[in-house]
Amino acid sequence: MTGELGQLALCFALALSLVMAAGGLLGARDNALTARRIAHGATMGMLVFVVLAFGVLTYGFVVSDFSIAAVASNSHTLKPLIYKISGVWGNHEGSMLLWVLVLSFYAALVAGLNRGGDHLTSAALGVQGLLAAAFLLFILFTSNPFLRLDPAPFEGAGLNPLLQDFGLAVHPPMLYAGYVGLSASFSYAAAALIVGGAAQSDSWARAARPFMLLAWIALTCGIALGSWWAYYELGWGGFWFWDPVENASLMPWLVATALLHSALATEKSGAFRTWSLLLAIAGFSMSLIGTFLVRSGVLSSVHAFASDPTRGFFIMVLIFCAIGGALALFAWRAPTLKGGEAFEPVSRETTLLLNNVFLVAACAAVFVGTLYPLTLDAITGEKISVGPPYYAATFAPIFFALLLLVPLGPRLGWRRGNLKDAMRTLYPALGLALVAAALVLLVASPRFLTGTCAFAVAGWLIGASAIDLFKRKGARASAFAAALAHAGLGVTLMGVAGTTLWRSEALTVMGPGETMTVGPYTLRFDGVTAEQGPNYRASRAHIALMDGANVKTMMTPEQRIYPAEGQDTSDTAIHTTGFTDLYLALGDDRGGGRWTLRAYVSPLAPFIWLGALVMAAGGLLSLWGRLRLRSAVPSAAVQPAE
């Protein structure tokens, strides 16, 4: 009966989402307090039933109820518990249910943070209700996670071994929290256009900003987790390959970053009102397009685990309705929309405008590189691949220009600034940039102009952030948010440059007792042993990292075979100093106790994920400060009267 209970819960959730949509949109009118209260109650009810449905599906995976088709296709009795749970979203049906679960949580947050039920929030709930209803209909009619098998198989087919990893257990929910989080800012932008007057003010941007921040933080952490997984799990020695699915998460992050800066200007000085509305629409549109790319089966990727081409058409229809509807609403209101407030050429608004231009251009470069091969294949049948050289020629210069601009904005005043004074405060940061470039030229080998520039820009960003942190000493914690986020960019840039430009690699066949050298490290091969895991068999290599004649540590890369799934994976071993990673991947058995071993030395690789954590910390500080400010203002002061 568990499957039927989950199915019934989804039906109730669909009914409540329709009530929520109708009540929210009707509540956007004057003197419609009852409709707003109905929308608020329906939002909470929808959350309850979606949580129930998700809990029922999770229970089915935990107890291995193979009468449920999704469980039979994606689980196995021998799987560890954590991977039984992560199997819930390791398939198309479950991942779509996770999407709706996250959407329901965001809708409940929208209702909970605005209990007064003003016109704008009511309309935003109405839009959220329409989105929820569309996805629930999609699940019930094309992607039902509770379909039954009769007779039920005795054993399940198992889960893709690449997904049986803690990083991939956490990565999809985190990324969905970012993807779906942009639906809240999308809903507020659409609500502002529905209400009309809100589009002319900064009220919608102020209301949506916590959700923008939450989505941006989740996207930052989700992308970092995905790149970390690709780094240690795939055995390729790299962290980013400009894979289409990786790009699908990067594009909404770029637009969300632009939206955060544009909405700040809208809120502070009234600038970019119409542009911020368009960015809010574009951000969620990129999330929907990313979902289509990952789930439709139109592309082949090591990351595209839960794709189903037969249902890609329906996802495309959802995208068309959401994006087309929002743009039609914008076009309807366009004649009445007023431009933002005027500002001088030298001002913070100008730097934020350039910031947005660079971010949108960077997103466009990624968009073209991702979709052009698919479009060409669909039109002509010709298959091409777009790889790192394209992005090095297009994305990298745009992003470098953006990073040069970043420290200048916070030092210029709103509407009018003083460029000389701003540059004067940045002299120490410029000095640090020159020192960083000189150190690279002196220490690094071989010398790369790209690497020298990258470290100079990183020093520029970190130095400017350090100045901001020192000058704001004693201020509220949220005042440090932008400085931390910008410093994190600099730290990540150093990691990307170090591991991309100065990585050492060695590939050799080794037998017991033989040694190899990679970079400054000497490795001794001590043989391979057979190991039995809970649901896999492993060939585990024993590699001694030598310090002269002594063993500094043992490293144990593995080759794993998963009998239930009929697949094998590589489990790498990484030794890190915090500044440099030694990375080992075990290859083929060459017979006679000899195995292929691939080794990499990646300078500053840990900085990639350290920088992402620093950026996320900056976002969290900003979010915390924003929520504290909202809680400090009496609700009567922020809710318009009936």
Explain what you see:
With 642 residues, this protein is of the alpha+beta class. The chain has 3 domains: 1-164, Four Helix Bundle (Hemerythrin (Met), subunit A); 193-411, no CATH class; 504-603, Tick-borne Encephalitis virus Glycoprotein, domain 1, CATH 2.60.98. Helix content is 62%, strand content 12%. It has helices at 2-26, 33-62, 69-74, 81-86, 92-113, 119-142, 166-195, 203-233, 244-269, 273-296, 312-333, 348-380, 388-405, 419-425, 427-443, 449-471, 481-501, 605-632, 635-638; strands spanning 504-510, 515-518, 521-532, 537-547, 550-555, 558-562, 567-571, 573-576, 580-591, 594-603. Strands 2, 3, 4, 5, 6 and 7 form a 6-stranded antiparallel sheet that branches. A 4-stranded antiparallel sheet has the order 1-10-9-8, covered by helices on one side. Helix 15 packs antiparallel against helix 16. The protein is globular, with a radius of gyration of 26 Å.
The percentage of residues in β strands lies in: 5-15%
- Unreliable stretches: 634-642
- Overall helicity: 55-70%
Class based on secondary structure composition and strand pairing = alpha+beta
| Radius of gyration of CA atoms, rounded to a whole number | 26 Å
Main pleated-sheet profile: 6 strands, antiparallel
How many angstroms separate the termini? 47 Å
- Please provide the ordered H/E string of secondary-structure elements: HHHHHHHHHHHHHHHHHEEEEEEEEEEHH
Please, what is the oligomeric state? single chain
Average pLDDT metric: 89
The beta-strand count equals: 10
Figure out the total of helices: 19
Tell me the overall shape.
globular
